[in-house]
Every structure is written in C-alpha cells, then in structure tokens.
Design brief:
With 179 residues, the protein is mainly β. 5% of the residues lie in helices and 38% in strands. The chain has one helix at 2-10; strands at 23-25, 32-39, 72-79, 83-91, 98-105, 121-125, 141-148, 153-161, 169-178.
Length: 179
C-alpha cells in the first residue's frame, strides 16, 4: 500500500481535466462549397496531444508536436454517404502559421481530442520543415479525401495555431463532391 501511495504522490499536479471545447456545427453539402469564418481565440489549447500519434488515430507524428500547440477550434458535421470532401483553412494574415487536421468517426461518436480513442481516417496539414523539389507551399492548409462511401460519417475538423498561436482570423472552406 505504501508503494501505491508514493506513486500517486509523484503524479504531477498539472494533469487536470480540461474544459470541454466549443464545437461549431457545419453542414457539408454534396456538390457545394461551404465557408465558415472563425478566429483561433474561439478555441483552446490541448495539453495532451499523444492521441494524434497513436496508431489507432495516426493524425500526425510526435515530431510535429509544436505545430499543434496553439488553440484548437473544432467544427463538426455529417459527411453525406457517397461523397468526398476537401477541407481548407485560409488564415487572413498570410504570415500566420496555422495547422489543420480532420478525422472521420461514426455518426454517433462525439469524441474529441484528447479523448479520441480511435477514428476511421485522420489527415493533417502543417507548415513544412523544408522545401520539396518541384513543390511550393503557401499559408493555406488542406486536408483531402475525407470520404463516405455507402454510409454517412461524422467529420471533425481542428483548425490549430502552430507554435502556441492563439489568435488569428481564418476562413474554413469545405468542398464536397458526391451524388
């Protein structure tokens, strides 16, 4: 019993439950583009990002941690069956360093990071650490191939400030193609 009490005493006091984040509702519509305006100050930081590099989510690797340390602003909606969406975030300030991720889960799954145990698909985009031959990158971030085949899925989008960025206007664009 003494060993257990000693272990519990060593757990850092900074591990606390976070307030649930605000989640904005979106409506992906087949064969349309929808736009939403927002600001990173509408979100909050997520202290534990380990959910993202676990193999059951595989959103982004731990080496990219610093690109997701700012405020996370969440959007969610139902991706219609037989459709595919591309998600783009456009910071109003071209110098602002934003990141973006999107994942798919079942329509009744409301799990958000850091409590995302698993997902069907997760994609992320962030500023590159280096240049790639024949490719360029601007200030926009894109996630492609959010796909719903025979049934709808919930899509959750995280617009994030990189390197502790917690304020900045942006436009979120969801372009959905389908039947």
């Amino acid at each position: 019993m003494k060993i257990l009490l000693t272990f519990i005493a060593l757990i850092p006091s900074i591990i606390m439950a976070q307030e649930p984040p605000t989640v904005f509702q979106i409506e992906p519509v087949s064969n349309q583009e929808v736009r939403y305006e927002g600001n990173l100050n509408q979100g909050q930081k997520i202290e534990d990002l380990s959910w993202a590099w676990q193999s059951n989510n595989a959103c982004f690797p731990a080496t990219q941690y610093h690109k997701f340390t700012g405020n996370h602003v969440f959007f969610t909606g139902i991706l219609p069956a037989y459709s595919e969406s591309t998600v783009t975030v456009i910071p109003k300030d071209p110098e602002a360093n934003f990141s973006l991720y999107a994942y798919e889960v079942g329509v009744n799954n409301d799990a958000l990071p850091p409590n995302l145990a698993s997902c069907i698909r997760c994609e992320a985009d962030h500023k590159w650490d280096r240049s790639y031959a024949g490719k360029t990158q601007d200030h926009t971030r894109n996630v492609k191939y959010m796909v719903a085949i025979t049934r709808p899925y919930r899509i959750v989008i995280g617009v994030v400030g990189a390197e502790e960025l917690d304020e900045g206007d942006f436009t979120l664009v969801i372009n959905t193609k389908g039947r």
